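Example (one chain per record):
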Amino acid sequence: MDKKQLKPIMLVGTCSDAGKSIINAAFCRIFKQDGFSPAPFKAQNMSLNSFSTPEGGEMGRAQVVQAEACGIAPHTDMNPILLKPTTDIGSQVILHGHAVGTFSAQAYFRDALQKETLFREAQVAYDRLAARFNPIVLEGAGSISELNLRERDITNMRMAIYAGADTYLVADIDRGGVFGSVYGTIALLTPEERARMKGIIINKFRGDITLFDEGKRMLEELTGLPVVGIVPYFRDIYIEEEDSVVLDRKRRTRQEGKINVAIVLLPRMSNFTDFDVLEHDARFNPYYTNRPEEIEKADIIVLPGSKNTLADLQTIWVNGAADAVVRAHHAGKKVIGICGGYQMMGIRIDDPEHTEGNLSSIAGLGLLPQTTVLHTEKITRQNRFTFLPKQTASRTAFPDKGYEIHTGDTQTLPDAQESPVAQLEDGRKDGYLLHASCWGTYLHGILDNPDVLDYLAEGLVASQAEKPFDYAAYKEEQYDRLAAWVRAHVDFDYIYRTATEGD
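Predicted structure:
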């Protein structure tokens, strides 16, 4: 098509988990395929899954996925405000990639002056992005009809109005009540908000789409908006998800003939996307659990990251999961830790400044000869590294990639030998290797590297796969499949026509 400048496109929802993030990623890939230079944007995101950008900032992983779909490097301008829950009622606020403090939900949402300041910061980030890319594909948060939050909204319709975005309402028909949720959502908009709405996308449809022809007509009559797409439910396209509700679908049990990997389920687990690669390598069967008997039956036990490491470590001591990990280690099972899980594997974790809460210190699992002291400074950076530098001297230097997001300094005990898991390109060493069945690292994304994945499987399968599993290539294939799926079920002629017309 003619490559005119497109107006911004925004995808908003009738509810949380309607599929906005996935539809956004599909739109991003379609615009890229069609010769545009798209970029994603979400003014404010709330997630424990985050990513370290090339410039050393921190942002939500949903916009990282969308940037990958666009074929561009992620930047904090794509998610200028990130909320990372630390307790049930409080969150750390990340602004333009850097932590600016921890606030209770009440203080954050009731401080009108603060919210206006943050909205201006979101506008600045959006403007920088819009000067470099076209179109910007914006994403809303939750439902756009939360009337009690309208005046303090910085993510949904206020952002759509500021950007002048063609806005599409995404509704999840799978959960039921689609007529009420769509009609009610549109009916509760102000006239200015309603003017931005260009259409409705029905998502997660099961069965024969033609059976919804009458429903489509009725929705259009009720709302005065066209239903521009009915996207069928899919199970065979993988796109990384960041919402922790997906973990309920991942509580599988062990499988015979597979390498069973128990990922210890923590109350405030962060960056569970570290383990998505295990779901797509045919050798592994990952599952999330905090039940001691399921942990001990696994071939490999993984301690994941946490936004509140001390509190989560205390929890697994109480519920028996920690003792199960220790018993599994003594029984010869493989145990690894990533980030907060790595800290848990040491002798002790101290928090003298109470950066995470009331606990000052807690005993670790005692698997690694190390101690950790938490501090207020947060480290966020991408890394290239060589895995197991003492064992792989002949390899190309720094072939692997990962990233750090953590507070705390981990030190090896004076009487223990240095034994790093990784040699970083900047000269630092990371992690500790006790032996092949016990090691930990601060590097998120470490398992995405084929050599690390092969090392994890070593000794647990009769033969290696014919070739290493290429996770990066796999993800590219999935973005293309998603784009084809959504393109086939959404009227992109209408999307493009509307995006090049005046309001």
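Caption: The first helix runs from residue 20 to 33.
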